Amino acid sequence: FRGRMALDLRLSQVRTGVAWEEVSIMDEKNIPIRTYQVCNVMEPSQSNWLRTDWIPRSGAQRIYVEIKFTLRDCNSLPGVTGTCKETFNLYYYESNNDREHYIRESNFLKIDTVAADESFTQVDIGDRIMKLNTEVRNVKVTTRKGFYLAFQDVGACIALISVRVFYKTCPLSIRNLATFPDTNTGADTSSLVEVRGSCVNQSEEREEPKMYCGADGEWLVPIGGCVCNPGYEEKGGACQALLTSADISKCCTETQPKTPNKPPSAPQQLISEVNETSVVLEWSAPLRLGGRTDIRYKAGSLGDVLFSPQQSGLGATRVCVSELQAHTRYTFTIGARNGVSQGHTARARESVSVTLTTNQAAPSPVTSIQASDVTRHDVSLAWQQPDRANGVILEYEVKYYEKNQKERSYRIMKTASRSADITGLNPLTVYVFHVRARTAAGYGEFSAPFEFSTNSDPLPLIGNAANSTLLLLSISGGVVLLLISTTVFIISHRRGQYSKAKQDLEEEKHLNPGVRIYVDPFTYEDPDQAVHEFAKEIDASNIHIEKVIGIGEFGEVCSGCLRLQGKREIYVAIKSLKAGYTDKQRRDFLSEASIMGQFDHPNIIRLEGVVTRCKPVMIITEYMENGSLNTFLRKHDGQFTVIQLVGMLRGIVSGMKYLSDMSYVHRDLAARNILVNSNLVCKVSDFGLSRVLEDESEAAYTTQIPIRWTAPEAIAYRKFTPASDTWSYGVVMWEVMSYGERPYWDMSNQDVIKAIDEGYRLPPPMDCPVCLHQLMLDCWQRDRIHRPSFTQILNILDKLIRNPTTTLRRTGGERPVPTLLEPVGGPEFVSVWSVEYWLQAIGMDMYRDTLTAAGYTSPDSLLTLTQQDMASIGIVTPSHQDQILASVQQVLLSHMQQIEEQMQDSMVPV
Ligand code: AMP
Residue 196 belongs to a domain with what CATH number? Predict the structure, then answer.
C-alpha cells in the first residue's frame, strides 16, 4: 500500500490463552489457514484473553488494526439464552520490553468493543457457511517503543481469521522543486505534521518550502519552494542543464563518424507515460553502439500525430507525442541509427516498440463562433464542433458578460446544440462570449473571447444586408464582430413592448434549453466504448477497499476510499464483477455504469468511475451510509415524522422527474433500489433492469419482472413508460409510509395480478395522511393517461411540505381532502431559518448576496434550485454547486421537522 506501512505481525505470533484454540482450517479457496477460535457460550462470566507478541511501532504514532473474523449469531445456537454474547473486546498495552512473559490483564487499555457488522461476506469455512466480518480500529501509540494487542472474549463464538496492523505515511514527494521525505502521519486523527522540504539538486530556496502531512497520509497545503540555479531549467520536478552553444557545436563535431563501423543494436527499456492524449516515450541507449558515437533515434507511429522536438534525428532518448486520439490504441517504435545504418528506416533488430491506449480527454476548445440576428437585446450564436471532440459532445456551455464588467459578473447558458439564442442583453453594449464543450470526460477549455456589440435595433436586420454587414476581425487573439449598419428594416415596434412575463418565460426557456436525452448503451456495438463515453476510467491503485457491505447481482459490493489526483479522498461504494464472468455478464454489469454516468442530479446515485482495464472490473459510486431504503426504514420502524417521510418521497420523485425528463424509464423503481445517505437524502439507484428484455423468453420475462411494483400494462404487454414508473412510485410511497412493509404482504404474484385487475388497491398504511394515500391511488389509475406525471407529483408534495398543517394532519378515518391539485391554503408557520446562517454553516457565505438577490431567501424557494439556476446567477464552481445542492435537501428536512414540532406544540390536549 502506498502511504500505508504494515507492521510486523503474523497470526502465528498470537499466543493462545486458556480457552482460545489454534485451529487450522481450509478457507473458501481450499487454502489452509490458521485461526484462533473460542466458543464458550454455555457458561456465564467468560473472560478469555489472547494476546500478540510485541510489535515495534517503527516511529508510528497512530496504528490501525484490521481484524477479519466470523461470529456465530446467538440465535443460531440452541439453548444458550442469557450466556451467549456477540461481541469481543480489543485492547493494547504500550511497552519497551519486547519479551514480556506475563502482562496483567488490568494493564491493557481498551481500544473498543467489536461487534459483527450487519454487512458481511458469506464464506464457506469447512462445511459451514460463515459471515466474514472486517473491522478496523485505530489507536494512538506514542509512549513506548512498541506495544502488544489483546483480544478478550466475553462468551461469544468467534473465529479470528486474520489481524493486520499498519500505520499511515505521506509518501516521499517533490513539490515546487523541494523534496519531502516519507513522513509518518500524526498521533491524532486531526493532526497535521509540518514538514520542511529540501531543495532538489541545482536549485536554491525561493521561500522556505513546507507542507503538512495529513492524518490520512496525504500531503496538504504546499507553501514556498525552490528555483533552479542559473543555467538550469525545471523539467519534471528536477533542474536540468540548459544546452549552451558550445555544447551544441561539441555535440555536432562528436557526431562526425571517425571509424566506419556497424549499425547500432536496438534501443532498450522503452517506457511510455500517457497523459490524456499525449505520450512521453523514454528509452535507454542500445547495448552496442557499433563502435561509433553518432547515434540518432527515429520514432515511428501510424496515424496523424505530432512528435516533439522532432520525429527523426533525435539525439536525446526522449520524445513527446501529442495530438493523439482519445482512448485509442497506438504502437510506437523507436529505431536507433548511426552513420553506417542502411536505408531510411531502422530494421526490426534496431528498434523497440510499445503499444498503449490513450486516456479519455476533454474536448479541444471551440474555435469558430459566428453571430447572427443581432438586435438591441438578442443575438444568435453558432459555432463548429471542436477539432478534437474526443467523444460524444453532451452539451455546450456559453459564458458571457459585459466587456467593461470583465468577469466580475457573468451568465452561463447550456445547450445541447451548436447554437444558442442569447436574450436579455443591454442595447449598444459590447459583450464577450466564450463557448466550451462537455463530453463524458468533462469540460474542454473555453474558446478564445468572442466580442460583439448589441445595437439599437429592436429587430434583426433582414435581407441580404444582414450577412453583408457582419465582419469578423481578429484582434489580439480574440475575435471582434463589428456591426456596420447600412440598411435597417424596422417592420414594427410591437417587439419593443414585450411584456415582462413573456420575456422572463423566454429567458427561462433559453436558460434550460434542449433537455438532454438518455443514450441507451446497448446501441453501442462495443460496450467498452459506451462505458468510456460516459464513465471515467479510474486507476485501481487509487481505490482502497475497506469492507464488504452487500451482495449485488454480479458480485460483492464493498465500501472504501477513492483518492484522485488533486482531490480529497472520498468514501465510495465499489461494486465488483465476480471472476469467471461471461462477455454478456460483463456487458450487462458495465451497462449500469454507462447509464448512471449520463445522470447528474442530487437524487440520482452519482457514478465516480469504472475500473475496466484490470481485474476485477469495478463500478465506483458515491457511498450511501444508510444503505437501501427498505432495510433502513424497517430498522427505524415508527421513528420518523410524517414530514420526514414526505421529505424522502420528495427526493425520490425529484430524481424520477429528472430521469423522465431525460426520457429514461427505470422499470425497477422500488424502495430496495433507493439508497439513503447520512443526511437522509434518498437517491434512485439500480439501473440494471432498464435494458430491453426483448429476446428473453416469456418465462424469463415474467420471472424477472418485479410484479408487485409493476404497472398492469407493463406486466401484460411490456408497455414500460414514465407512467408505468409512476405506478411503481405509488408502491414506493406505500413502502415508505409503512416503514418498509412488503407490498401485498405474503400474497402470491398471481393473486396480486388478479386483485389489481379486479380493482383492489393497497389500503392506507397506519398513520398515513389521507392526501398521501389519495396520491398513491392516483398513481395506480388503471388507465395510464390518468396517472399524474412526476412533475405533478413533485408539485403536490411541495405544496404539502409548505402547508403541512392543513394537508398532512388528516389520517385514516377522517374525510378525505377532495383534490390535491387545488392549491392548499392555511396558516404558515414562522420559521427561524435564515439563508445567512445556512450558508455560513456550509462555508458558502460568499454567495449570500447572490442567492438573496436572486430571491432565494426561504427554504421553500430553494426547493426549485438547480445547477443551471446557480450557474445563471454566477455560482459556477461545480464543487460549490454540489455542496449547495446537497445541503438544500438537508435544510428542507430540518425545516420540515421544525414545522412539525411547532404543529405538535400548537395542538391543544383534549
Ligand atoms: P445492488 O447490486 O445495487 O443491488 O447493491 C447491493 C447492495 O449493496 C444494496 O442493497 C446496498 O445495501 C449496497 N449498496 C449498493 N450500492 C451502495 C452505495 N452506493 N452505498 C451504500 N451501499 C450500497
Answer: 2.60.40.1770
